[in-house]
Design goal:
This protein has about 230 residues and is of the alpha/beta class. It is built from eight helices and twelve strands. Bound molecules: calcium ion.
């Protein structure tokens, strides 16, 4: 049961929302729903879905704006649902990072095909993106794996070798919480109590260099009692 993929359906029309939910549940997905853009953003913050099905015409904000916000933070596949039929819209939303596009009205099979296509597209994108990537970028931040340095707003922040290893581990698994033990293993291959203290010191130094205001971080987040997480790329 827990292994089912969660699809967040963002749709304000009750009848469509019900139809889509039934189709997806019948095909083995768990469905969560949101009736507004704001609700969708909040729900993603609490729990990232496996797939986002996003209606463009929402009562509180344009679906395109919602997608932009999602793409700034998350990498899960997005299927855009639209009543608009112009090709320009379609090209526009796809170029902005949607993985698939479906136009209302649509049938059962069309919907399922579209969700699966989005999942495949997103996965291919990630795989193509990962192996030969020597620079990883998000916003004003760049990690250069070849030169072993990190840049913020184009400026080298002057990491030590240990700080670089710690940061790389976090960035490579961005969006996931890495435990203290995992990070100690990565940096020192040693998870003793002494290293736990050193990890705190190392992390404090890294955050000071990386974050404009370490008290209000925008890259590395502490999960108290568990570990640290680099923001979603
Ligand atoms: Ca709508």
């Amino acid at each position: 049961m827990e292994n089912k993929k969660v699809v967040l359906v963002v749709e304000d029309e009750q009848s469509i929302c019900r139809f889509v939910s039934v189709v997806l549940e019948t095909n083995g997905y768990l469905v969560e729903t949101a009736g507004t853009g704001e609700e969708a953003i909040n729900k993603c913050r609490v729990r990232q879905p496996s797939v986002l099905l996003l209606d463009l015409g929402l009562p509180d904000m344009d679906g395109v704006q919602v997608m932009k916000k999602m793409r700034e933070r998350y990498s899960f596949p997005v299927v855009v649902v639209s009543a608009r039929t112009g090709e320009k819209d379609k090209a526009e939303v796809l170029s902005m990072g949607a993985d698939a596009y479906i136009t209302k009205p649509f049938g059962t099979q069309e919907l399922i095909d579209c969700v699966k296509r989005a999942e495949r597209h997103s996965k291919q994108g990630m795989e193509r993106f990962l192996p030969k990537k020597t620079r990883i970028q998000t916003g004003e931040f760049t990690l250069d794996l070849e030169k072993e340095c990190a840049l913020v707003s184009g400026k080298d922040i002057g990491l030590t070798h240990m700080e670089f290893i710690l940061l790389s581990a976090l960035v490579k698994k961005s969006g996931r919480v890495l435990t203290y033990e995992f990070l100690m293993e990565e940096v020192w291959k040693d998870t003793s109590l002494e290293k736990a203290r050193e990890l705190r010191t190392l992390m404090a130094g890294l955050r000071k260099k990386l974050e404009e205001n370490p008290m209000e971080p925008c890259y590395i987040f502490a999960e108290i009692g568990v570990g640290y997480r680099f923001r979603d790329i």
